[in-house]
Amino acid sequence: MTAQNRLLTLSLLLLGCLATSRATLVVTGTNYTVKLVEGREGEPKYVLSRQYLDVLECSMYASDSSKLVDPKIDWKIEGSNDTLDSRFSFSGRLSEDKKNFTSTLSVRRPENKHVTNYTCTGSATDQPEAQGRARLQSMPLISFKIDGVTMSDVGAWPGQDIQMSCIVEGNPAGSPEWKREKDGATIGNGTANLVLEAVNYDEHRGFYTCSANNSQGTNAAKIFLRVKHPQAYLTPMIIIIVEVIIIAIIVVVYEYFMYKKHKQAEAEGEAYKTD
């Protein structure tokens, strides 16, 4: 084969590859920082506002700027295959030149768990699928759980073991830090669970603070540990004893008067027979 024939063959192969190649889809997503509001008493300093979020968008276009046919974008929470629930709604719009498609994700009254990353998978006729990412961001969102129940304070008897869990949500994730308020001592760093063994009134009773930070800011929340006083059981015990004594006195007095009434009736009966 001559050099001219080889060149011709290579040219034909290149043209064939170009003729059979397809443009790829490109999907890009937006980031949005969620606005937080001041928490009420017993809540963290900042909490997620129960607003209607209509902020996340993913856009799709073809790499060769060709028109899109039947474009569609599917949304999911990153790392999950579950279908988004009825709290979410979607809308899409195709540009006039049909070269760009944008999908908007809306969240009605979002919860802490919804502040996370989302994947948007784009597809169109005769085009391979492509993925993008959109993010809802916020400073850490903090709550406490005791035995799986959300609480802002917890009671304990002296000698009891207590585990308090600091749940840190938000995006990016933050690492929790525990402090004892009365002396400012750090008693847990990087761990969600704070375990206090054999608690006592003088040492452990008081507020505990869990804080966390990320690129969006810092947040903190407090929980109060109510350790009972060692003599706290005396009050209810005394009340019970007093109640028992009062009931006993009432019973004795009642029986005494019933006895006297019975004797009086017997005496009157004897007097009637004598007459």
Automatic annotation (TrEMBL):
Residues 41-137, 140-226 form the Ig-like domain. Gene3D superfamilies: Immunoglobulins. The chain crosses the membrane at residues 233-254. Residues 1-23 form the signal peptide. One of its GO terms (cellular component) is plasma membrane. PROSITE patterns: IG_LIKE, PROKAR_LIPOPROTEIN. InterPro entries: Cell_Adh-Cytoskel_Orgn, Ig-like_dom, Ig-like_dom_sf, Ig-like_fold, Ig_sub, Ig_sub2, Immunoglobulin_dom. Pfam families: ig. It comes from the Eukaryota. One of its GO terms (biological process) is homophilic cell adhesion via plasma membrane adhesion molecules. Keywords: Disulfide bond, Membrane, Signal, Transmembrane, Transmembrane helix. PANTHER family: CONTACTIN 5, IG-LIKE DOMAIN-CONTAINING PROTEIN. This is Ig-like domain-containing protein.
